[in-house]
Amino acid sequence: MALDSAAIRAEFPCLHQSVNGRPLVYLDNAATAQKPRAVLDASRRYYEEINANIHRGTHHLARAATSAHEAARETIARYLNATDPAEVIFTSGTTDGINLVASVIGLGGILAPGDEVLISTLEHHSNIVPWQMLCERTGAMLKVIPCHEDGSLDQEAFRTLLTDRTKIAAFTWISNAFGTVNPVREMIAAAKSAGALVLIDAAQAAPHLTIDVQALGADFVALSGHKAYAPTGIGLLWGKRAVLDALPPWRGGGEMIKEVTFAKTTYNELPFKYEAGTPNIEGAIALAAAFEFMESVGLEVIGEHETKLIRRAAEGLSALSGVRLYGPDDRAGALSFGIEGVHHYDLGTLIDQMGVAVRTGHHCCQPLMARFGITGTTRASFAVYNTEAEVDALVTAVDKALSMLR
Ligand code: PMP
């Protein structure tokens, strides 16, 4: 089914503006996506109609806010095909979720000196640094799956790196820098059969793919709302109930307790065990609205539309002289490129003058950039509301900028 671009775009108020006298062409969606009215309305309605702190209030508004928050958790659990809403822990985003897991694995005494944590060359700093910090604390070793020249992971090396010392494997589903889509189902199965716990960074998968946590078979899936049409400051960590139940609590405070005395505290059940303090109530409600928005358009329709755009962009850009595209041909979400003799920052600044918003730099993937011997790339990234005309505007703008820079 084709997408009704005009109708979709009408739902996104922020798209309708001029930048530097040109209509905005927003192609920085891998950094954060614009928000549809359904999400903005959910946020506003929460504050206008039912704002109150949740869970312990007896008054009307507190009960209404609590119901809306927990209904959002149920909607999200259904969206992710989780068996139990208690497996959905609200976080502030992917970074927060990964830090939660790395921290409780450390506190749980799962890693001994010489054990291994396996990540990949494609990872965002958020899926590198928490594991490095954990390794420093525990004496475990960080191992890294290498990638091929086309930006796909070396699956043979991955199988060799998996040993009985691999206690946790954490890798991204889609690379934010190159758009590489990893074969996560197979990778998860291999890591599970080696006895490792597995975390999937779904920050870039969430806006583009159906996430079925049962079919995936990982232990943890972390994502951010803001890349998937929800507000900033909300995300989630899905974790298998048996695994989360066996892990210790993390941050201490209100909500995560059953009973507190000065002598001893007992802890709450999931999901509250990992939700200390007043949560982002409006964010959770808006995240559910964002998932419902994507469902209403259809994840397959979104995926097909974006693939068409990304192929058109790849074709158009690779026809320009000196352009190198990074990542394999079947990339999703993002298209990264470099241009001989042109700094990505200069290019990004010039095309912004023409109304085209892209991201330039290392994309929080410095080790990946180092692997390719570059300091950064220019990255165009796509969402449901982008159009073929916008792809053409990108290619024209890059072409024009090149004639100015060379
Ligand atoms: N992982 C990936 C693959 C990402 O693209 C990002 C955001 N660029 C993150 C993790 C971190 O997400 P956040 O900043 O929303 O926590």
Automatic annotation (TrEMBL):
Gene3D superfamilies: Aspartate Aminotransferase, domain 1 (3.90.1150.10), Type I PLP-dependent aspartate aminotransferase-like (Major domain) (3.40.640.10). It is an enzyme of class 2 (transferase). Its cofactor is pyridoxal 5'-phosphate. The keyword Heme does not apply. Keywords: Pyridoxal phosphate, Transferase. Its EC number is 2.8.1.7. Residues 25-394 form the Aminotransferase class V domain. It catalyses: (sulfur carrier)-H + L-cysteine = (sulfur carrier)-SH + L-alanine. It holds the Pfam family Aminotran_5. Belongs to the class-V pyridoxal-phosphate-dependent aminotransferase family. Csd subfamily. This is cysteine desulfurase. It comes from Luteolibacter rhizosphaerae.
